[in-house]
Amino acid sequence: MAERLQKVMAKAGVASRRKSEGIIQEGRVKVNGQVVTELGTKVKVSDEVMVDGLPINKEEPVYFLLYKPRRIISSASDEKKRKTVLDFFPDVEERIYPVGRLDYDTSGLILLTNDGELDNRLTHPKYEVDKTYVAKVEGIPTNDELKQLRLGVVIHGKKTSPAKTNVLETDKKKKKAVVQITIHEGKNHEVKNMFKAIGHPVEKLKRESYAFLNLRGLQPGDYRPLKKFEVDKLYEITEKK
Q1: Which residue in 106, 111, 144, 183 is a FRET match for 194, CA 20 to 30 A apart?
Q2: Prediction pTM value
Q3: Could you tell me the CATH number of the domain that includes residue 38?
Q4: Are residues 215 and 223 in contact, defined by beta-carbon separation less than 8 angstroms?
Q5: Closest by alpha carbon to 95, among 190, 10, 185?
Q6: Residues taking part in catalysis
Q7: 189 and 117 in contact (C-beta within 8 Å)?
Q8: Domain span at residue 175?
Q9: Crossing angle of the two packed helices 190-197 and 143-151, in degrees rounded to 10
Q10: Beta-bridge mates of residue 136
């Protein structure tokens, strides 16, 4: 049975399906010795697929949950040689990569896998997977200001999807507040931009949960493999759209 080339690459842990499409279009993929740039190309199990001159391996899928510390890059590599999330997995032989990203100075839950199909589902906007953050912000937001977040605010000309908010702490002397916010979008600096839009810049940010997953029992820098039922549930919640 033949499958689309980008799907085969994603299954092999090369990159997500969307990123694999870019790799194909850049002319970096050969099938049976021939460069392929057509996205509709289908390949069989017997076909030899090479990316950047190296044959892809059909790895078993693996899944990890990492408590990312602050000042760590959420990518497979960094041109400035800064520490990345992959540095916490020196003994993992599979070619894993982060699902989405967390800002350099944001801590919290991030998933890593070599399953391109699940990565595609979790990062595609249509699946609307909830992500909950705790933000320490300047000033104390009023209910009317938080209502703006719940209704959606305009950032770079586009309105954000409605968020859920909950004030956890306030410090009137220091004029600070800690606010929990749940969103399902994954745009760059999304939470920071949302609080900035209502006049309360973020000083510190942590992602506490991703869908039903949380950081319970982990310290910054710790990770654990996902259990089979957790992987199955992630597939289940992204099956409904």
Answers
A1: 111
A2: 0.78
A3: 3.10.290.10
A4: no
A5: 10
A6: 103
A7: no
A8: 130-210
A9: 130
A10: 178, 204
